[in-house]
Amino acid sequence: MNKKRSAVFMTLMLVAPLLTGFTESDFIKKTEDFNIDFTDLGEVGDSYKKYKAVITNNTLFPIYPNAFEYQNKKYDFVRANDPIQQPVSIVLGKSSCEFFLIVPKEADVSNYTYQADSFVEVESNGSVKGPYNISYSHENYEDCELVNVGSRSYDLNHEYVYTYLFDVSYDNEHYYSMCCQGRYDSLYLFVTKNTVISELTVNEVTPYRVYKEPEIKRSSSNGSKAFLIALIFIIFMPILILVAFGIIIGVIIYVASKKKKKKQNNSNF
């Protein structure tokens, strides 16, 4: 694996839950409350077929439709001309969005398991405010490029892990995607190679809670600090005792020598 492939792999590991489906929690729920209308668009090469898929979200929350699975492989719903390569595309609450799906010819799309991840809790006590400055990261890969999204974050609760709903504009269309926080607490997007960065606009970034940090983690952290303090105490206390003992012995010897010297001086008279 060359350095570039390794770098993008490590970065994608940060968003792996977004790419493979979230884990249900207090803040993410599985839902089947959406519809998909498939339209056969014909064959693609010798082995695949292309479908138009109009997904209607009947919930009040943004959803991520799970990938179509066939013979242990996953095939994502993709929006035409979407400038965002990764992470996942989102359908907003009470709205419809048109995707396309390319699957093996023998796959039966009517067997799609209707399930999606629904993001149910916006962070009400904090926000990620603009202006949102998009800049090149100089990390280029075979089919995408990583760009940084600069912003100002306010009062996000560090007891929670977040994902961020991006509303972006490109070529007079709105696109929505979920992205987790990147390295060094930065926000970033993977964009397609043919995306003109100067024409991409981030309109809004909304933080959603994914899960709460387990209490045991914070307790474990405090326990580690207590253990470290105790260890330092155990290591240095004997040294301090020896130093103190040495000082006391030194003072005793000094006082005794002074008394002896004074006695000798008195005996000369």
Written overview of the protein:
A 4-stranded antiparallel beta sheet has the order 7-14-11-10, with no helix packed on it. The protein contains 3 helices and 15 strands. It has helices at 3-14, 16-20, 215-267; strands at residues 28-31, 34-44, 48-57, 63-65, 68-70, 73-75, 84-86, 95-104, 116-119, 127-140, 144-154, 160-170, 173-180, 187-192, 201-212. With 269 residues, it is an alpha+beta fold. The longest helix is centred in the C-terminal third of the chain and has 53 residues, at 215-267. Helices cover 26% and strands 42% of the residues. Residues 1-20 have low confidence and may be disordered.
Bulk shape? elongated
Number of helices: 3
Order of helices and strands: HHEEEEEEEEEEEEEEEH
Mean pLDDT: 80
Q: Roughly how many Å apart are the termini?
A: 95 Å
The oligomerization state is: single chain
Structural class determined from secondary elements:
alpha+beta
The percentage of residues in β strands lies in: 35-45%
- What ranges have pLDDT less than 50 throughout 5 or more consecutive residues? 1-20
Quantity of strands, as a count? 15
Radius of gyration of CA atoms, rounded to a whole number: 31 Å
Major pleated sheet: 4 strands, antiparallel
Give the strand order of the largest sheet, numbering strands 1, 2, ... along the chain.
7-14-11-10
